[in-house]
């Protein structure tokens, strides 16, 4: 109904005029409807889309609030049970053995260079009490932080990492065994 009243108002307007030559097709509908405007009449066209965009541009856009970063993951709880700390795959055995091997390898080479004694002569000439004292002291010093729940990885930083200590200990263990085997086969000091 609204469409028909709008059409009637357009057709009745003095601005539009249907020419007499409009063609009629087989359905009796005019195919050419061209409105003619007089030369003195003006037609104003107003675009509403620009007004709406201007209003959208004038509205302040809300700034999104940054989401807080998730909290850092907690370090896994380290077991302080004696059986867990000294287990075969626990944190203590390889570290303690590696630390003892590093001290033993360096001290064996130092005594060999200074006195000219091989490893077996060093042990038989009073090296056993030094070995036992060093082993007990270093074992307790290594176990105390582990029983308090401090992990080795939490204290490693920069060049002195826990992995570097493990690898140095492994090489020292191999070096100490190789030194003793070489001196045994050679029958004297390495140098």
UniProtKB/TrEMBL annotation:
<keyword id="KW-0150">Chloroplast</keyword>
<keyword id="KW-0812">Transmembrane</keyword>
<feature type="compositionally biased region" description="Pro residues">
    <location>
        <begin position="61"/>
        <end position="75"/>
    </location>
</feature>
<dbReference type="Pfam" id="PF00504">
    <property type="entry name" value="Chloroa_b-bind"/>
</dbReference>
<dbReference type="GO" id="GO:0009507">
    <property type="term" value="C:chloroplast"/>
</dbReference>
<keyword id="KW-1133">Transmembrane helix</keyword>
<dbReference type="InterPro" id="IPR022796">
    <property type="entry name" value="Chloroa_b-bind"/>
</dbReference>
<dbReference type="GO" id="GO:0016020">
    <property type="term" value="C:membrane"/>
</dbReference>
<keyword id="KW-0934">Plastid</keyword>
<feature type="region of interest" description="Disordered">
    <location>
        <begin position="52"/>
        <end position="78"/>
    </location>
</feature>
<keyword id="KW-0472">Membrane</keyword>
<protein>
    <recommendedName>
        <fullName>Early light-induced protein</fullName>
    </recommendedName>
</protein>
<keyword id="KW-0793">Thylakoid</keyword>
<comment type="similarity">
    <text>Belongs to the ELIP/psbS family.</text>
</comment>
């Amino acid at each position: 109904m609204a469409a028909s009243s709008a059409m009637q108002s357009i057709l009745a307007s003095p601005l539009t005029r249907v020419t007499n030559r409009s063609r009629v097709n087989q359905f009796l509908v005019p195919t050419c409807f061209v409105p003619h405007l007089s030369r003195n009449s003006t037609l104003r066209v107003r675009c509403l889309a620009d007004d709406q965009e201007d209003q959208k541009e004038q509205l302040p856009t809300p700034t999104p609030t940054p989401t807080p970063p998730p909290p850092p993951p907690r370090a896994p709880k380290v077991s302080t049970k004696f059986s867990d700390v000294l287990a075969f795959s626990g944190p203590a055995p390889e570290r303690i053995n590696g630390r003892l091997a590093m001290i033993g390898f360096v001290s064996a080479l130092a005594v060999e260079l200074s006195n000219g004694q091989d490893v077996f002569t060093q042990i038989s000439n009073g090296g056993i009490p030094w070995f036992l004292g060093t082993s007990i002291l270093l074992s307790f010093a290594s176990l105390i932080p582990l029983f308090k729940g401090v992990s080795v990885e939490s204290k490693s930083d920069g060049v002195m990492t826990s992995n570097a200590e493990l690898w140095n200990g492994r090489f020292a263990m191999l070096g100490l065994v190789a030194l003793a085997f070489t001196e045994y086969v050679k029958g004297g000091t390495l140098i």
